[in-house]
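B., you asked whether I could sanity-check this one before it goes into the benchmark set. Here's the sequence:
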Amino acid sequence: MKGKVVLVTGANGGLGTSVTQAFLDAGATVIGTAPKILQSAFDNANFTPLPADLSRQETAKSAVDQVIARFGKLDVLAHTVGGFAGGQSIAEMDDATFQRMIDINLNTTFHIVRAAIPPLLKTGDGRITAIASRAAVDPGPNVGAYSASKAAMVSLIRTVAAENKDAGLRANVILPGTMDTPANRKFMPDADFSKWVQPSSVASLMVWLASAAGRDVNGAVIPVYGGEV
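And here's what the prediction gave me:
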């Protein structure tokens, strides 16, 4: 990944931290976005923090514009931003919860992907990898808003793959099962953590998809379910 410029969204989150570190370890120049992120988040000269709110199109575009202004190009978008809400059936679902899942899981993806596509196309070998969820294809009870937003996100990324395949841009989506993050351990303290997906495993897959070896993978929806198959 040396010489590659990588934009990681949610770079200091439960998964984003592992993804950012994996790209840095692979030799990439990494720009990490989050609403609040500092240079001290990663002890690496190839890391650049970029505080950004991706909830609006103009701020997402501004983030990408800043990457291009400083580094001259963008080779990879690694999108890890997302949120979870559960506990309500569809019949009980309130509008605010449903809209919040659409905003954070679908709309942020749309904003940053739309902004990133033009510079990614200029490289002739651009890559987009986004994190959805197993729930996108295997929905369960009381997580309807989350599942629907992630399913729409999968469709969005696959559409990007189809629209840009002839221009060399590759876009794929990963469907993790429950990931072993501090937030999930706090939310489900009695679960069997040994069956959960390790963030480092997902991060390694994202780096591989962005590498020369991953060039032939496009429009893929990749399950990573750990021991919960």
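One thing to flag: The radius of gyration is 17 Å. Otherwise nothing jumped out at me.
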